[in-house]
Amino acid sequence: MSITNLVSLSPTSTNILNSAKDLGEAISDLSQTLFVFKNKSDDSITVSTKAESSDNPNSTLEAIVSPIEYQNLGSKAFMKAHNLKYPYVAGAMANGIASSELIIAMGKAGMLGFFGAGGLHPRRVDQELKKIKAELRDISFGFNLLHNPHEPSIEEKTVEMYIEYGITKVSAAAYLGLNEYIVHYRLNGLKRDNNGNVVAKNHVFAKLSRSETARKFMAPAPKKIVDKLLTQGKITKEEAELSQFIPMAHDITAEADSGGHTDNRPLVSLLPTFVNLKNEAMKEYNYTEEIRIGAAGGISTPQSVLAAFAMGASYIVTGSVNQAAIEAGTSDYVKDLLAKMEPHDVAMAAAADMFEMGVKLQVLKKGCMFPMRANKLYSIYQSCESIETIPQKDKLQIEKQIFHNTLEKVWEDTAKFFEDRDPSQLVKAAKSPKHKMALIFRWYLGKSSLWAISGDESRKMDYQIWAGPSMGAFNEWTKGSNLALPKNRKAVIIAHNLLKGAAVLSRMNQLKVAGVEISEKDLSFAPDALMKVN
Known about the structure:
The protein has helices at 3-7, 20-28, 76-82, 100-108, 122-136, 152-165, 180-187, 211-218, 223-232, 237-242, 267-285, 302-310, 320-323, 332-340, 370-383, 392-403, 407-421, 424-431, 433-454, 469-478, 491-513, and strands spanning 9-11, 34-39, 45-48, 51-53, 59-65, 88-90, 112-115, 142-146, 169-173, 191-192, 198-199, 203-208, 251-255, 260-261, 292-296, 315-318, 346-350, 360-364.
């Protein structure tokens, strides 16, 4: 239809939306075209689902709200690169909370899921990897890769396993810089296609919250590390040469105020900053393929989803809301706690990994004592040089209230654990009493998340449950609907509700810009555990 014909349109009288209810239903029908007209005599606004030609129209066409498919909210290039139907990623939650069941469900729905391999024994990771590959075959999925400065051998072995099994997507987390392990993973399999373009076999999704780290992942692999890997024979000469033509990560996730490890950054500041950094990197390095920026942390309502895409996100990543899903690898008791929490029911607590560095993570504080007890242990670690120098009062509190065991017995269990996982830690502990104390304290910090996952009745007050304020926001949004019940919370259904809700709000905002007065309360779309999906 030509521009002239559009100007000559008038609303069809039988299709005018006269009530807020009718308008809300039309907005929520994503397949419905809406026409906005302004009356020439009194400037009143009319919305119609149809329009007809008129030689002398009494109104002017102000706007057309076209149908929308909610997968188009994100980047088509992102979906093409990873063979997805939707720009939606289920983030990796360690200790298998982002379970194989979750990853398989997401993959079959045309979304991307990352298995939470962090904290698991390599044998368990191997089992889950085979299970997922058998189910999904050529469908996209990934595993997470945690930076582990205190146990680098674990990080190295993980990378070697991923390369051996052909895992082509990893969610890289807790990185403050680049090391030889993640560079090795990224460069493995680099080649040129028939058109001469550099093609990466392995994709790094870098989950970051700091600009200085983002710049490193937007740049090519450091030449010093590349040369070292080449000398060691871990990469080929071709891979080394091609490494300077691509960024370390084509997909960089701006991680805002998330559950677990977080810098508590506000998404409205972090995401635009990363988008600007991406634009600078594209100009500086002249890459042929665009770097894509995703949004994570706080993504749990249609409003937050739409805001992320509006700020330039190519894709979104959810975490906390999936932990409360049926497929999540945690206990029903934890899912019930998460379903009842509010945005303010969170706190920062000492983390098991990078404990000595004072790194903290965001956890649920309602209904448990873990945050207070974890921070108490870190405070003692800071002030004491060994378990022998811990004041008697504090020692008794640790043994009776926190560990429910003696420090000596906990050390026995800890030593057995590291004999299998990383014997070098025991060598270091023999030389450093303070390191021995750190390992003992990390016993509690590590066990507490496992107690929550298994639903250990005797340790409910010590549950470590990773969660951000977004979980509370999700509960508020779903309150009164069938999606409020944990038994109805399927991860894929949650995803479709969030995406469709964002699309509905997008249409409402288009009408508002055209002068239509409409409130969210008038929309017919509400969270629905039974919604039909394609």
